[in-house]
Queue: 3 jobs
Job 1
Amino acid sequence: RADCPYYAKAELLADYLQKNLPDFQIFKITQHPDVWEEWLEDVCEKNKWDHKNSPIIWRELLDRGGKGLLLGGYNDFLEHAQLYYGVTSSMTTELMMVIAKENLQTHIEKELEKDTLKDLINPLRVWIANGNASVCYNLIPLLLSGDVFGMDTKISLTLFGKEQMENRLRSMVMETEDLASPVLHSVSFCTKVEEAFHQAQVIIILDDSTEEEVYTLEGCLRSRVPLCRLYGYLMEKNAHESVKVIVGGKTFVNLKTVLLMQYAPNLAHNIIAVALGVEGQAKAVVARKMKTTASCIKDVIIWGNISGNNYVDLRKAKVYKYESAVRGPPKYSHSVLSLIFDSEWVQKEFVTTLQNLSNTGKHFGGILAAHSIATTLKYWYHGSPPGEIVSSGVLSEGQFGIPEGIVFSMPVKFENGTWVVLTDLKDIAISKQIINRIASDLTQEKLIALGDLLTFQPYGPEHKDSIHSSITTDEGKDPVISDDAEDKTEEY
């Protein structure tokens, strides 16, 4: 304890030993009187010691950090010094009290200096909404690895959640501190709604449960509105003006994104939906077919509803480092479709596999979700790989004939801290019928959620037909787009 007179006397003896004995080192740890008892209890619990008073003294026979041997308090230390080294200590009570007072003042000044230095650092303020979601266990280590924002960027992380989840949030904060990440400036949690997203520069929106029970698709769509309205208001009110908002999850990702844009109009251009998870699933399916690794597959495009009715486009897809008759340097690539000679597989099995993954959601677990979010943020801050096509859910402005005002996954590139839709890509036009079919779902979801439409209506009588029929009749193009259409009655 910083104001303990016996600590002052033990310190004098320890200083003498260190000065006069070879290979003898001391390490002094002072704690403010207000936190001393809690600190002592933690140390004793960790080392399975039984000690109640100040000071506590132990020796470590190896380099510091090895297993400690408890000596005890001041009297035990004095006896140890006399027995082993023939050294004792003499200090008047008056002098002990004076030094104890000086020690406390020095401790307070050092703590203030630490706080001042900490305040001089301007960390990146990252908020995770629904910070108690299980995906956070995979996401937080990625965010603090230094790979996403850079090793030179200090991060102040805040987990936002409901008040009833405070214990879980507190536990996650402690686990995050235990990571001892060199880029972590601070970590905390927030359960006070009015304080949410304060000065946030990055906001990650994860799936959150709704308070009310819903039994219909329409009810489920409308149930997303209150939380998105609240988040939108809080982002506009509290977040930094340049905040980047990224929306992830398993259900209604496009809808949540467009609702956030609706209720935070000043930040709309800086709100996007994560599509890299679906893209990763598609690459893995192709890679298994071609007997290569998913990382060698590039330029797969995801169109439409990320967590529902979407289409996987392989027309631009390339494979690198592929073992074939034609070989080239590492940057040499083959067209995926030129190497998959089984058109039946592309038209049916590929489609069915992706559709099953989308319907069940079994393969979109915490690892994939976390990696997709972290990678999207990395691209947003540092740029996507040059020349590579990535997919993201962004607000449509009429590109590719997509109706305006809905969030639609489409090909983009990230550069200079922003994103650009790749409207100049050649030979990626898709038929109006296919666009209308995808856009119909997204438009209806938005209208129903906002109360402008009462019931959801499937698009056309052929809605349940296989998508390849539409593609193969579209000017004779190859069937390269697959349907991840999700049964709307199971999505919620």
Job 2
Amino acid sequence: MTPTRTAPATADVIVIGGGAAGLMCARVAGLRGRRVRVIEHANRCGKKILMSGGGRCNFTNSGTTAANFISGNPHFCKSALARYTPQHFIEMVERHGIAYHEKELGQLFCDDSSKQIVKMLLDECADAGVRIDTQCSVESIERIDDGFRVRTTLGELRAPALVVATGGLSIPSMGATGFGYELARQFGHTVLPTRAGLVPLTLSGKHQERLADLSGVALPITAHCNGREFSNFMLITHRGVSGPSILQISSYWNLGDALHLDLLPQGDAFEILKEQRSRRPAAELRTTLGELFPKRFAERLCDIGFTSRPMRQFNDPELRVIAAQLQQWPLIASGTEGYRTAEVTLGGVDTDELSSSTMQSKRVPGLYFIGEVVDVTGWLGGYNFQWAWASGHAAGSAV
């Protein structure tokens, strides 16, 4: 993994990007007897793998289907996902003796450390004869008669097949750049508009002021936007809201879209309030809500939305109004935290110009795009890694 000053002149496959998709592609191609070179501009491979899942890497989701992805063509990902399933990756994890567990909703994490996943991939690449150059930047790429000429800071390299596995724009502090999109445009590909996905939402003005001092408070909700809904926890932050349910819905939200929260997703709010009124008629609404929500959040609800008085003083129509507000609470977001904290990038290389079975360009023979650089974006919960493995496997099987 130590960079050298010169590079061999030729290879069968050049993979630009030593992340999840790139390493999987290199491994598969190497096992097929291809001479593979991986070019990684950072000082080590798999940085996003290392930081994922709080350092334990949510490496796949056992329930992965095409429905868990956002793309201009929702059918594009089906072929690759069908041919390399979560079970295929799990079998490799188990073969390397990596202990793992399911956290929730099919999300699989390492028991110990995400470093184990990176080591596994690097070991697999080494066994397949793959050469990896880190701290190696690409200076230029040209199409030549027999493939591609790649000029790097370690020298010039040529190969008939070039795989772009450069990732998206999310988390620039980890080295993310728009290089893959620039490369796609250079070779005549359409790049669909990109934006931050799986990202915290920001609030402004009175909406932010009402919640800012509740930073750190979390509660289960169901977020609704544009016909989609996600149930999980919401976390209030200094600048807005985050947590799994918010990250999920953020990928479907655009500025100005209506966004509503069901603050009592565990049941029918009206029936819950009626039961509370029957059980403790003398209790104030503030106190009752304090049993259903974190206390400080309940108090804030009463401060900004409800008049608190003993529960017995609320008739059924009044309770219905309160219940409706609790289950259709409007969240007026002003934006997102952007690529700085986004887990993924929505948009990217247009799938209409790629083969769904091989990831090869329909415009330039020998050119492949895999992983996050492609317009395929998964939900939170291991789906984006599964796309990386599946798309990398598809290209690696074809180059």
Job 3
Amino acid sequence: MATPLGARGASSRGSAARARHTAPTPQPATGTAPIVLSGAHVVLPTGTVPDGRVVIDGTRIAATARDDARVVDARGHWLVPGFIDLHNHGGGGASFSGTAEDIQKAIHTHRLHGTTTLVASTVTDDMDFLVRQAGLLSEFTEQGDLAGIHFEGPFISPCRKGAHSEELLRDPDPAEVRKLIDAARGRARMVTLATELPGGLDSVRLLAEHGVIAAVGHTDATYEQTVQAIEAGATVATHLFNAMPTLGHRAPGPIAALLEDERVTVELINDGTHLHPAALELAFRHAGAGRVAFITDAMDAAGIGDGRYMLGPLEVEVSEGVARLVEGGSIAGSTLTQDRAFKRAVTVDRLPVEDVVTALSTNPARLLGISDKVGSLSPGKDADLVLLDENFDLKGVMRKGDWVVDPQLA
């Protein structure tokens, strides 16, 4: 989403290299023999099992262990499914609007923080650039490094543009929306739209027909207009509460419509900056854990730190972990990682661990249509998991049976 100051030309406008780029080789978890992670609090779809166990055989979770399985003591830890991020612009000093090297760096950065399944989000830019970037990101999806592409902009409201460049915004013309999803070669997963703009409802219908999630966001819509968008097929609220009218008692706006409809999944950025704890509690109480998806909306500085960055043509200052436009002060994405979102939800917001797992793994997997592969620690699914200590700090990350972060358990 943003690149280090002065580096945009080298990152987001640079080489369109198509060679496969790989992160440092993860450490094999098993070799040829299965392992059994034993003694942890294991969070399953049916609830938490104290002193539970998870069997990993190759790249998948198994129902039973073979005689040659190696038992690993995970007592004192929590074992949860790998995190899934639906909305992420980059990290590690790199952007999903950048080169192939940038993309791989951002992916690996978030894997180190427990995100084993990741949708890459673009930011508003000119259409030709977005078309080219869609082609590059689709290659990472085809090789299994990404779960798809999310286009955030340019079809959003100038009244609620946030950290998007106003001169590059445009109405959601269905022909242009179709151009982007065609460029993604079947790998487009979500498009954020201000559905009240001309062409908005037709674009929602087009996306629904092509199996792409239509998300209501960066919108100035009324309550009634948002209801129309949901009826047309919109099923996600892009970072609920942010970049949309506030909830009013006479003009409830999009927030009320999105919270009340059972068909809508609401994204929440749980970094302590984007949402007051009371707003987070309101969303969980009204929508229920089954309709919440925690996202990062991360930009380049995630996993790096404070400094000056560029968000397209806009300069961003990251100070004490909060990213804001230098001109105007609007929040410009986040520096959040999903392990921090998990810990905050449990230790600060006091949400049940099971609800947090639902918001970080189960619901995003369902929304993406991949819950047969990921999203829970169920036999037959990919061996994607996160090991947390008793304070909910990340200690280990496994993806498809290989340790990305090795907990060094005996």
